[in-house]
Structures are given as structure tokens and as C-alpha cells.
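Hey, does this match?
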Amino acid sequence: MTRSPRLERVTPATVDAALALRVHPHQERNVAPVTKSLAEAYAYGETAWPRLILDGDRLVGFVMAFLDIVWDEKKDPGDRRSGLWRLNISADAQGAGYGRFAVEAVAEELRRRGADRMYVTWEPGGDGPGEFYRRLGFRATGEKSGGQTVGVLDL
């Protein structure tokens, strides 16, 4: 089977499928559900970049980037960052390269917008996605955000 994943906007025709997307039950503590992501995308407007991951007509995941946000206003109001905010791959589509595709697609979008780094946060621990992100070239910055490990990838 030839895979041809692509990113698409969430539309009225696809929103119900997006809301029904589920990761493996043991991963639910590591990533917020799509419902929360879409609410955040609405609230954050232009700084959120939500997309569905489709392979043909099949919905296989959801990804959301953050664009040019003030990272820690109290520490440094000039520190603006872009990166991967959320990644949900459907339980039945994991292990097929869709996560890697989504991260690379977000990296390409950030490069197109002029970014030279891409940030991500993840839940620490052996069952979290840290190893996945490290395999893609992210390195821990030594920072924490909301108790999560902060990683960065040079673009």
C-alpha cells in the first residue's frame, strides 16, 4: 500500500471525525484530546495552526503548531517561539510513520514562515513521547514548561 499522508484544515465536514480521534488509552495522560486542542485553537486565533493528518480519505491523526508566541513573558518578553503544540496519532495508525510525517510537515511550515528553531514539550518518563522526539533530532533545553520537558530542533 502506498502511503500519501497530507495535512488539511479542519472543516465543518471533518470536525466530527477529528473530535472522535483517539490515541492508545495508555497515552491519554501524555496528550490532550483533540477537543481541547480545537478549543485552544479557537481561543488563540492566529497563533494556533491546527491540521488533520489524512492518508487518502482516512483520518490518521491531528497536529497543531504554535506560531510566534511569547514564551515566558515574565522572564523575557522578547523570547518568541514557534513549535509543535499537539500531536495525536490514532491508536490504529501508530507505528506507520504518520507522527514523523506530521513533525516534518510542521518543521517545513515553520521554515516557510522564517523560523530557525522548532520547540516541543513532552511529559517526562519512560512511557512519554520523549524518545520519539529525540529520534527526530530534538534535544532537551533544560527548561520545563508546566512540568513538561522542553525540546528544541534546529531547522
